[in-house]
Amino acid sequence: MNKILGKFITIEGVEGVGKTTNMIFIEEWLKKKNIKYTSTREPGGTPMAESIRDLLLATRDEVMHENTELLLMFASRAQHLAEVILPGLSRGEWVLCDRFTDASYAYQGGGRGVSFKKISILEHLVQDNLRPDLTLLLDIPVNQGLKRALNRSKPDRFEQEKIEFFERVRSSYLLRSVEFSSQYKVINASNTLKKVQLEIENVLENFLREF
After folding, report:
1. CA-based end-to-end distance of the chain
2. Are 46 and 88 in contact (CB under 8 A)?
């Protein structure tokens, strides 16, 4: 694995928490600080990984097996790491990523019921010991988040899941935020956008000072 010189920041949360809007806000903050960065997303981030994303999100009559979903996620992640994330970090850039492996623990683990042990095996196979330096968990009650998400576009395969699925996803995220408290910062995404972004900015300023 390439030598890591940059910082790896991930944004997590269920549907409708405002990840896209706040990714843009963080990009602007990085520009103001004159920090070189790469902004990307999962699943996706490279042409091949984006094709896998299309497979994962498309609705179809055939039900996708939980193992197929998990393996596709990590296949996309392997390509993404090789082409985007690790090269960016080795150049000393900050890599800002919309979701990463914590999403697999939340969605495939919590949501689908795939064992965490199985996910952990793939995690270490694909990314060795790489973990985000900072994870911003945008947290919101599921009902509120889904209402936002469904108002913006036609639902994809994940967004068509029942509310109980997303409750399990959210619970998994919150449990991980406790287990990995040094990595996670939980942001109350129910607040106004101004308050949410002020909280994000405070977290980023503290993170910058620490290292």
Report:
1. 22
2. no
Buried/exposed 65-90: b ≥16 CB within 10 Å, e otherwise: eeeebbebbbbbbbbbbebbbbebbe
Sign of CA dihedral 181, 182, 183, 186: positive
Taken in order 83, 27, 134, 52, the sign of the CA dihedral is: negative
Sketch the domain layout of the chain as residue ranges: 8-210
Type of residue numbered 128: D
Burial class (CB in 10 A: 0-12, 13-18, 19+), 11: buried
8-210 sits in which CATH class?
alpha beta
Peptide bond into 87 cis (omega under 30): no
Task: Return phi, psi of residue 155, to 5°.
Answer: -65, 140
Angle, alpha carbons 157-147-195 (nearest 5°):
120
CA distances from 145 to 133, 136, 151 (A): 26, 16, 10
68/205 Cα distance (integer angstroms):
40
Instruction: Going from the first residue of the chain to its last (211 residues), give the mean pLDDT of each consecutive group of 10, the final group possibly shorter.
Output: 82 94 97 97 98 94 95 98 97 97 98 97 97 98 87 79 94 98 97 97 96 73
Reduce the DSSP state of residue 113 to 3 states and report it: coil
pLDDT of residue 29: 98
